[in-house]
Amino acid sequence: MKKVIFRHSTSRQLLLSVAFLFSFSVFVQAQEQTAQDSPAPAEASQEAASGGSSLGDPGAGKELFNSLCAACHKPYSNSIGPALNGVTDRHDMDWIHEWVKNSAALIASGDSKANAVYNEWGQTAMPAFPQLNESDINNILAYVEQPKPEPKAASGGPAGEAGGQGAGGVSVNVILGILVFVLAILLVVLFLVNKTLRNFAAASGITIPEKPKSKPIHKAFVENQFLVLVSAVVVLLAVGYFAYGFFMQVGVDKGYQPIQPIHYSHRIHAGDNQIECKYCHSSARTSKTAGIPSLNVCMNCHKSISEVSPETATEEYSKEFYDKEIAKLYDATGWDPATRTYSGEEKPVKWVRIHNLPDFAYFNHSQHVSVAGVECQKCHGPIQEMEVVYQNAPLTMGWCVNCHRETNIRIEGNEYYEKVHEELSKKYGVEELTAAQMGGLECGKCHY
After folding, report:
1. For residue range 149-189, what is the model confidence (pLDDT) as tens digits?
2. Minimal CA–CA distance to 368: which of 418, 302, 435, 432?
3. 3-class DSSP state of 114
4. Which CATH number does 54-144 carry?
5. What is the CA radius of gyration of the chain?
6. Which of 352, 348, 254, 272 is nearest to 312 (CA)?
7. Domain limits, the chain
8. Do 80 and 337 touch, CB atoms closer than 8 A?
9. Distances (CA, A) of 400 to 289, 380, 445, 446
């Protein structure tokens, strides 16, 4: 009898290696997690320094600054007035208190510093704030005198966090690597076991029967005429279905999302700041088209807003990105934020239109917005959540017809509609009429 060589010792060593590697990786990740959770000494000292300001309470000062001062001042850059960071180094505290409470009286008294500031900033009058006491002013100064925060490094995002850390601080990539390694070891073990069994069978004189070769599947398919006929019918139906769907999508631009020459975030303007849509698209109330806002509408706010707050930035769009887009607006309008003057050299902005209708289709924004009271989101989707605008609805004829069939008309304050509604409601036997029942499906309403 021949001696059989057992090969399980090799697999046992490999499995022990895997266990050691896994334990080592868990230990290293736990150490890294502990190091990350412990605050750095510099950060702790910085937090202690910011919390112990000698001027006042920065938190209370921030609220006062945003409500009273932010229209004309910024902490770290010039606006209508000068940057306030460092003002306590440039002027005495008593002088600052008098200036804030009544700057006009201080100028009229002949104070040289007050007149110098007044003339330097184009003799722009500063409102008086007699309601502020010294403690309130000190709180504002404590807020503006804080060191300018350093821009945060872009994080890896949700996907990066999910991919970087798993449960208990163990990297998911490490776990996946270990699993792949274990699977590779199992394949090697199975190969060795198969080889050992075949050698054992050969040594014992056992013949392993071979599987009979079956007929190729393509030959079996061709010989079955019924299966060929059914397959041909299915293929023809599928081709017809997809061809019809393809041609029906011609001219339908749902999901169209072009890149604009100046990045404009509806999420920030309509969402975070809750700016009314018709403030920018004012013609939607009175005309056929909503119109493209002129740049002077943008400058109504951005003459004083040259940069965004750090909280506005996202993982995809940094603060520096938004600030550069505001700089593009200044370049197009010829606005110089340093001198706060227009150069007169304007550049056209070639906006890319997103929502288009065929020339033979008539749509009136004022009829829908002012008369029917349709919300912008009804056609344009959750515009207040869009960072980059896209076409939300297909804007096809069927889509419009379905809306007319489902939407009831508004008759409040409209004597004409009240009279028509009374007559048609008797005709149809309903209490409320849809736009379709009021003639909204007549061809001449939209095609002319």
Report:
1. 776 554 444 444 444 454 455 678 888 888 999 999 999 99
2. 435
3. helix
4. 1.10.760.10
5. 36
6. 272
7. 8-38+156-203, 54-144, 266-394, 396-448
8. no
9. 17, 13, 12, 10
